[in-house]
Amino acid sequence: MEAFSRLEAVAAPMARANVDTDQITPARFLHKPRSDNHGDYLFHDIRRGADGRQDPDFVLNRPAYAAARILVADRNFACGSSRETAVWALYDHGFRATIAPSFGDIFFANSLKNGLLPVVLPGEVVTGLLAHLQAEPGARVAVDLEAQVVTLPDGSRHPFEVDPFSRHCLLNGLDELDYTAALAPEIDAFMSRYGRHNR
Amino acid sequence: MLEKIWDRHRILERDDGQVLLFIDCHLVHDGTAPAFAALRQRKLAPRAPERIFAMPDHYVPTDHRDVAAIPDAEHRGMVEALTRNAAGHGITLFGLEDRRQGIVHVVGPEEGLSQPGLLIVCADSHTSTHGALGALAFGVGMTETTHVLATQTLWQRRPRTMRITLDGVLAEGVGAKDVALAIIARIGTAGATGHVVEYAGEAIRGLSMEARLTLCNMSIEAGARAGMVAPDETTYAYLAGRPYAPKGVAWDTALAEWRRLPSDPGAVFDREIAIDAASIEPMVTWGTSPEDAAPIGGQVPDPAAVEDPERRAALERALAYMGLEPGARLDGIPVDRVFIGSCTNGRIEDLRAAAAVLRGRRVAPGVRGWVVPGSGLVRAQAEAEGLHDVFTGAGFQWRQAGCSMCLGTNGEIAAPGERCASTSNRNFMGRQGPGARTHLMGPAMAAAAAVAGHLTDLRRFGAA
Predict the structure, then answer these.
(1) CB contact, 8 Å: A198 with chain B?
(2) Chain B residues touching A104 at Cβ < 8 A
(3) Do the Cβ atoms of B229 and B216 come closer than 8 Å?
(4) Is A198 in Cβ contact with B25 (below 8 Å)?
(5) Residue B310 pLDDT more than 90?
(6) What residue of A is the nearest CA neighbor of B48?
(7) Rg, Å, chain B Cα set
(8) Spatial separation of the C-alpha atoms in residues B114 and B99, rounded to whole Å
(9) Which of A21, A169, B324, B377 could form a disulfide with A174 if both were Cys (CB 3.0 to 4.6 A apart)?
(10) What span, in angstroms and rounded, lies between the C-alpha atoms of A150 and A141?
C-alpha cells in the first residue's frame, strides 16, 4: 500500500447524499482485474448522458476539477455493496482522500486498506465546504494525517478521528496482512484450542 | 448475543481496541478471484481450507448449466477461476453441475453451514443474511477476503448494537420483505450504519426461518453490517438434518450451546427502535434507494413539498431517473419486467408465495417474467411441488439458480428505461442495467404486478 501522510490538492464536490457503490462502479465492471485502470469505470454511467457521451456538467468532467485528488461528498457516501472496485476506481482516478459526514461501513474499511483516506467531518462543515468548492472550482484542501487535521480553503482547521492502527499503516504504507502474519503462533494456538469446533 | 459470539471468537486484542477474530466459515463466490490472485502473489495458501465453501453465483448463466458455453470470456473466466482455485486449495466447491449450487446466501443456510453462534464472512454485503440463524455474519471487501483466506481471521472493532422490536402481529398479506422495507423507510438507508441489528419481538418470533433470512438480508440496506435473530425452536427445527448441521451427540451438545446464545433479559443496546407490526402494509419502492419505500396504497412524493434543497434535488433526480410524476399512485405504475429471485427472495417459501398468486392466472400482455430460484435444491423442491408448472403456465420463464438480474453481473439485465418489479434488494440507479428502473417488493407483490401489468396490492388477488 502507498503511504499517505499529508496531501494538499484540488477538491471536487460531489454534492449528493447516499451515493451508492453501484453509481461509483457499475456491476458490469466488477470482474475486471486489479491490473486494469479502474479510474475508467469511476462513476461510469452517471458521468455520461443518456446518449453515452461524457456529460460536460458532471463534476469530474469539468476542467477545474481535473487535478482533484480529494473528493468531498454528502452523507452516507458509498453505501451499498462490499465491492472494493469502488475504492480502486477512486484511487486509480487519482483520489487519495474522501471527505463526507458519513460513509458506508464496508467502503470505509476497504478505503483504509488501499491508501484512500476516508475523513469524517461534521455535516455543517461538509455542507459549507461543498458550497465553497462549487462556488470556487479548483479550490484546494489540505488533509494532514499526521496531525489529523483538515484545512479548508477558508483557512479553517478541523480535526478528524482515525483508527490508530489504520493511521499507522497508512503513514508507513504497511499492509495489515503482514502484521497479522507475524501473529501466526497466536492464531495457531487459538485454533488448536478451538479445535474442529463448528466444522 | 453479539457480545457472546464476539467473545468466543476473540484471539487477541490490540492496544487500540481492535480485536483479531477467528472466522468459522468463509463463503466464497465467483467474484472472489482477485483475493486468490493476491494470495498467489504473496505465495500464500488458505490457512483453513476446510472452513471455506465455494460456489459460483454472480457470473453463472441462468438459462443453462454449461460453463464452457458462457459466451462472455471474462465471465466464463470468473467461474473457471473459482473452480481452479477451489481444486488447487482443497476447498469444497458446489459447482455449476452440482444440484447444491446456488447463491451463497441461499446455499449456506440450506446446507446447514450457517449455524447459531458462528462467525461467517463472505465478499458480499448480503452476508448479513446468515444472521437469521443467530450467527454473526457480515460482508467484507477483497483485501479483507485475502486476509481471511491467509489467516482465517479478521481485525474488527466491536460494532454498536441496535435492537429493532416488532411487537404485535403482521397483517394478512404482509411478509418479511414488507417488514424490511418499512424499517428502512423509517430509519433510512444509513439508519443502522455502524451497528449490528438484532430483530426481536412477537412478530419476529412468528416469522419462519426463510422470512428471517429475508429480513436479515436487507439489514445492509439500512446501513447495518449484520442483522441477527436469536435462535429458537424455529431455528433448531430448520437446522435439524441439514447436511452440515451437527448430528447425534454433537447435535445435543450444539443445541445446549445455542440455547445459551440469546441476549440476556436485561441486555442493553446502544439504540432501540420499536415498530408496531400491525401497522405495516405491503410495500414497494418508488425511487433509487431502498429507503424510498411506501405502502402500495401510497403515492409518489412531490419534490415541491420538500423544504431542504439538497433533498429536493435528490428527489427530483430519483423521479427523473424512474420516469415518475409527483403524486402518481403507486398502485398503477406499469411494469415491463418481473424478476422473482435473489438472495433476498429466492427461497422455496418465496416461490410458493408467488405461485399462490399466479396459479390459474397469466402475466399481463407485454410483461416478461422470470423466476430464478436461489439454488438448485430450491429449484428441485419447487419442481417436486409442481410450482414450475404454475410459473410456466402463467407465462413466466423458469430458470436455473444464480444472482441473475439482481445485479446483472452475468449480463442478465433489463434494457434502458425498462421498469422491473423485482424481489431483489437494491433499486440503485443502473443496478439492473444502465437506465433500468427497479421497484423492490416481496414475491407475492411481484407476482401480482406481473398479472396486473402494473404495481398493485396483492391482497386484491386473495391469495396472500
Answers:
(1) yes
(2) 190, 193, 223
(3) yes
(4) yes
(5) no
(6) A191
(7) 21
(8) 19
(9) A169
(10) 7
The residue of chain A with its CA nearest to that of B432 is A27
Q: Which residues lie closer than 8 Å to B256 by C-beta, 6 or more apart?
A: none
Task: Identify the closest residue of chain A to B431 by CA–CA distance.
Answer: A22
Looking at residues B276-288, what average pLDDT do you find?
A: 98
Pick the CATH number of B285-461 from 3.30.499.10, 3.30.450.40, 3.30.1780.10, 3.10.450.320: 3.30.499.10
Burial category of B181 from C-beta neighbours within 10 Å (exposed 0-12, middle 13-18, buried 19 and up): buried
Query: Is 3.60.10.10 the CATH classification of the domain at B160-233+262-279?
Result: no
User: Tell me: the pLDDT tens digits for B285-306?
Assistant: 999 999 999 999 999 999 999 9
Residue B265 pLDDT level (bands cut at 50, 70, 90): confident
Distance, CA of B145 to CA of B122 (rounded, Å):
7
ipTM of the complex: 0.95
Please report where in the chains the cell 415498530 appears, as a residue: B275
* Cell matching residue B75: 465471465
Q: Going from the N-terminus, what domains does chain A have, and what CATH number goes with each? A: 6-194 (3.20.19.10)
Reported confidence tier of residue A198, pLDDT bands at 50, 70, 90:
low
Each domain of chain B, given as residue ranges in start order, spans 2-158, 160-233+262-279, 285-461
- Answer for the pair B450, B303: CB distance below 8 angstroms, yes or no: no
pLDDT in tens, B374-424: 999 999 999 999 999 999 999 999 999 999 999 999 999 999 999 999 999
Q: Report the pLDDT averaged over residues B223-240.
A: 98
| Cβ-defined contact of B225 to A105 (cutoff 8 Å) | yes
Instruction: Give the type of residue at B104.
Output: V
Task: Return phi, psi of residue A125, to 5°.
Answer: -65, -45
pLDDT (0 to 100) of residue B40 = 96
User: Shortest Cα distance from B240 to chain A (angstroms)?
Assistant: 15
Averaged pLDDT for residues A166-187: 94
CB contact under 8 A, A191 and B190: no
Residue A146 near chain B (CB below 8 Å):
no
Of the candidates B180, B174, B186, B163, the residue with the CA atom closest to the CA atom of residue B215: B180
For the whole model, what pTM was predicted?
0.96
Q: Which cell numbers hold the place of A116?
A: 484512500
Q: Which three cell numbers stand for residue B148?
A: 481471511
